[in-house]
Here is the input.
Amino acid sequence: MEIDRIDGRTPNQLRPLACSRSVLNRAHGSASWSQGDTKVLAAVYGPKAGIKKNENPEKACIEVIWKPKTGQSGKSEREYEMILKRTLQSICILTVNPNTTTTVIIQVVNDDGAVSFKGYGFHLLPCSINAACAALVDAGIPLKHLAVAICCGLAESGYVILDPTKLEEQKMKAFAYLVFPNSVLSVLPEGSSKVVGEPTESGIITSVTQGAMAVDDYFHCLERGRAANEKMSAFLRRSLQPQLPG
Amino acid sequence: MAGKAAPTPTTYSPSPTTQKTKPSFFKNHDADWVRPDGRGFHQCRPAFFRTGAVNAAAGSAYAEFGNTKVIVSVFGPRESKKAMMYSDIGRLNCNVSYATFATPVRGQGSDDEDFSSMLHKALEGAIILETFPKTTVDVFALVLESGGSDLPVVISCASVALADAGIMMYDLVASVSVSCLAKNLVIDPMLEEESYQDGSLMLTCMPSKYEVTQLTITGEWSAAKINEGMQLCLDACSKLANIMRSCLKEAASGSEE
Amino acid sequence: MGYSNASGDLSSEMEVDAFRRLFPLRFYERHLAELIRPDGRALGKARDTTIALGAVASADGSALAKIGLTTMLAAIKMEVMTPLKESPDEGCIVIEFHMPPICSPLVRPGRPAEAAPVVSKQLSDTILRHVKHFSVRSFSGMIDLKDLSLVSGKAAWMAYLDIYCLDADGSLFDVALLSAVAAFSHLQIPVVSMNDEGKLIVVSEENGEKDVVNKEKRKLRLNRIPFSLTCILHKKYILADPTAEEESIFETVVTVVLDTSDQLVSLYKPGGPALAFTSSVQDCIALTKQRLKELQTILDESISGMEVD
Here is the structure.
């Protein structure tokens, strides 16, 4: 059942992560995030006075603009924008700055090589969610918690690998893109933060799948994604902490 | 993202629509040919109206004349666009669009812009705009299937939808067109007949008031023919208005129960 | 939820309609506590569903699907294309979802609905899944594009599927998918023959012309038909097949797509304030399994209803 990964990773091993904040001068907050050869730049502008289209007297509004690496935005980009917007809305505390709009701009910088491969998938989604989340922190937008996005690839044999590269993606039959709240370091006794018998961090903020799979396989992906959450959260904490004031 | 949307190959419809040769019956003008659906020259297609087709709208109606099927939704009166100046009387905003599958060849619906303004002009005179100052009533039409005489059907259907929405009107607006085929006038033409017509006349009127709100004539017409065509349309309009009225009455009595 | 205190004292004095508009969340939560919804449905129950095949005569296949008040009209038009070099034996399917201004007060001409391109893409992903993405060996979509081939390398069918939302009242994707699937099962591929210029033209069946290219292939084979159910997650409640009002009050929706071979085609949860835990995901999948059987029966009935005529 073992699958040898081309880059020699273990199935649960993520590609090397890198995150740098405040990479742009004019934006209120920005971050660049890379996972292996995929790199995404996120910029946050706001909160600004609410624009008419998204006016809401009780809540802040998040707007997402997705810029592909090349070419024009199409239907796929509209969908990424919608998923990202709703994901970010769920981690922000929207009632703090009512009637404002915060714009998040995602620029895909590098898309893991392979041009021949038709980019129908959502493989850029996890990277951009992570980047957007770091940029929101950088801009000082009040958040309930962070969002950690992970891609699980499911091979024909039912084997699950985490964070596949594009080359590996072509051998997979299905994918699950999952977003979880970050796992927290808490001094509270275990169990106090549990909702319906499960810790908050195992709740799914966003789930997008591609390709058909058995229901059990999906739950298998969930498990593996949750396991990776801890590592990702630790990385996020490390890269965001030193710059926090105080 | 490069190479994402693969360039869509060019396609063509295999239906033989390009041959617009006039059917053989047409060659000898005076012969008593029959219309493709067997109707008499001055006989309209059976008209069917139903109100309340779209629940999300303030008022709506579905109309079916033979193969011509349209839906009209009415929204409002609601807030006018911010850019609009203050107005003592209400505004009417119309839009007509075609479903891509409405026409024999995909996506060849008629000029929507043109139809939208024609619909606007046809209805404008019948609506009591003073009853909703500062606001806008939106009339949106979608042609689901184009089977000829699309615009007259849209106009009649819109007037039923306006009544369904409770917008005040002086009278219902009914619209009928006639095609001139050589020496003959045929009423309520089908798509096929419209494709080889020599001229067309569309008349929109308020039958109870006996007032015309719109009259469009294209092609070559003699004065006598115009008179004949108008009279045909006026008669048909008043009959059509009866059908529209009975549909509205039915809906109203049904909702009371 | 800051309203809850304010509304507590008012609810007894206020008219129901006013209360519903002013404190929608509180209004719904009172119903949910009794395990019933304002329209009288149980939480896990979908609205009445109907399918009418062959609603559009100008199309090669069409269907009108209605779930509750949400109405969708899907129609397929077949055109001929030259197949792509890399796949000479395959046709093509283009899926477009439209929200014309008639369907909702939120859509205006010139300002297209935000949801339209997203639903459009979701539909393409669900119906054409794998076709673009994976090599032929792992084909598991609903339609084999090879069935759309006419003359290898020369001509193939391009199926244009257009879905129009006529009335929008929640669960748009579910109804759109149902109408799309129904339109495909109603599709009657026209009989064509090659003319002198090498173009394919429609010929009538009775003529018995000898050059007919596709005598047998008049119907598309549909494997593994996908069906979907959208649910709302709110606290411990799961509401199946939400209306537009419910979708706007509770913002968390989960759409599950299963196919007739019990594979999970999609589990779609785009954000939302509520988190989905394993148990609620399992419940949503179980509800979808039930719904799949219902929808399959409704579709089968509408198809057999057509054959009687």
User: Anything to note?
Assistant: The longest helix of chain A spans residues 215-240. The longest strand of chain A covers residues 38-49.
